[in-house]
Specification:
The chain has 2 domains: 120 residues; 248 residues, Major capsid protein gp5 fold, CATH 3.30.2400.10. Strands 5-12-9-6-8-7 form a 6-stranded mixed sheet. Strands 1-10-11-4 form a 4-stranded mixed sheet. The protein is α/β, with parallel strands linked by helices and 403 residues long. It is elongated and about 120 Å long. It has 12 helices and 12 strands. The termini are far apart.
Length: 403
């Protein structure tokens, strides 16, 4: 077996010398071509690249064969020539395979050789972690609610810590026909000043510096998750904010209570929403959107006529969440189950961004530097001005009829 390996090593070494000489000649030819023509042809460039790749592969093969030869000679000193193939070392099996011999006879740059090795020659006490587990691409992230409330409200920006604005609170219309030579009547318009403070929504996260450096995808995922967490709380604040310290003054607590102009026979949730839209229209502030719980919206979509057909949509076609010509925003806030909100979102309220959602990473928080940790902060600053509370109507759906 050592003699076979020596012969193979000699063949590969000779091939390496041949390729090296050809590579040198081709490199000199390329230099002359660049000097004369000012550029290197694609054919010459491809040939030089091929020879360089082949030379690198041959160098690696020679080094490997030298190492295998030394191992084989050491094993041969301790074993006789009659030992079975299953008892030979991995190096000996590799060198003895026809695949490696064929590789030496017809060397190709970059060629890979697969050599089967009997398990009996493998060590049974490989340290844990030597064989790495398969890593699946991507990161399995948690499900998220779709957020749309912000999209319904008029956007705005501010550079101040508070929004000062004037709200019309009343209007007495005294306009009438006036006879010639008589005094004109006076109407009365009432105003009130309002101050809406900018609030901060934020959260923190700790992570190892090494894992953030090693896995760029993990860093981007954490960035996205933290921004989502921020937007989720923002959604809740826009709807239900108490208006207390460090809270937005939410729309629902300020909205007008639902009061139907009339009561239809056997009212359904669809009837209720239409009457709420009417209430908004009668307040001279036509609604531009509807907010309801996901479960309630599913109940509405499943409404059927007397023949069993869906009256709301065809399940076989894509249909956006709309009702009475207005967009419907679904929320999974548990406190909103059974309730609804309709209103003139685009004119009755405005959202002012003081500082957009941003993620900041620091290594100087507490003992982060000492422990090779990083602190990640995500925050935003914004203010919500509900300019016309009467533009919003909120209430509950009628209880389902019992059979």
């Amino acid at each position: 077996m050592p003699d076979d390996t020596k012969d193979l090593l000699k063949q590969v070494s000779n091939e390496l010398v041949r390729v090296s000489d050809e590579f040198t000649r081709k490199a000199e030819e390329a230099m002359r071509e660049v000097k004369n023509a000012g550029r290197l042809s694609e054919e010459t460039k491809a040939k030089v690249d091929e020879l360089a790749t082949m030379q690198t592969a041959l160098n690696g093969t020679v080094d490997e064969l030298k190492a295998r030869l030394g191992e084989v000679e050491q094993k041969g000193a301790r074993r006789n020539g009659s030992e079975a193939s299953a008892s030979r070392s991995i190096g000996a099996q590799v060198v003895a395979t026809d695949a490696v011999k064929d590789f030496g006879k017809s060397v190709q740059g970059g060629r890979r050789v697969s050599v089967p090795v009997k398990n009996v020659t493998l060590s049974a006490d490989i340290a844990e972690g030597v064989v790495e587990p398969q890593r699946l691409p991507g990161i399995d992230v948690a499900p998220k609610q779709r957020l749309f409330i912000r999209d319904l409200i008029a956007p705005g920006r501010t550079t101040s810590p508070a929004i000062f604005w004037v709200q019309q609170t009343g209007f007495t219309n005294a306009a009438r026909v006036v006879a010639e030579g008589t005094a004109k009547p006076y109407s009365d318009i009432e105003f009130a000043t309002k101050i809406t403070p900018v609030v901060t929504i934020a959260h923190m996260f700790k992570a190892s510096k090494q894992i953030m450096d090693d896995f760029a995808q993990l860093q981007s995922m954490i960035d996205a998750e933290m921004r989502y967490g921020l937007k989720f709380v923002e959604e809740q604040e826009i709807l239900f904010g108490s208006g207390g310290a460090a809270h937005l003054d939410g729309i629902v607590p300020q909205a007008t209570a639902y009061a139907a102009a009339f009561t239809p026979e056997s009212p359904t949730p669809i009837d209720t929403l239409r009457l709420a839209l009417l209430q908004s229209q009668l307040a001279r502030l036509p609604a531009t959107g509807i907010v309801t719980h996901m479960t309630d919206w599913a109940r509405i979509e499943l409404t059927k006529d007397t023949t069993g057909g869906y009256i709301f949509a065809n399940p076989q076609r894509l249909a956006g969440p709309t009702l009475w010509g207005l967009p419907v925003v679904e929320t999974d806030a548990p406190e909103f189950l059974g309730d609804f909100l309709v209103g003139a979102f685009s004119t009755g309220a405005q959202l002012f961004d003081r500082e957009d959602a941003n993620v900041v990473i620091s290594t100087e928080n507490v003992d982060d530097f000492e422990k090779n940790m990083i602190s990640i902060r995500c925050e935003e600053r914004l203010a919500l001005a509900v300019k016309r509370p009467e533009a919003f109507v909120t209430g509950s759906y009628p209880a389902p009829a019992t059979p």
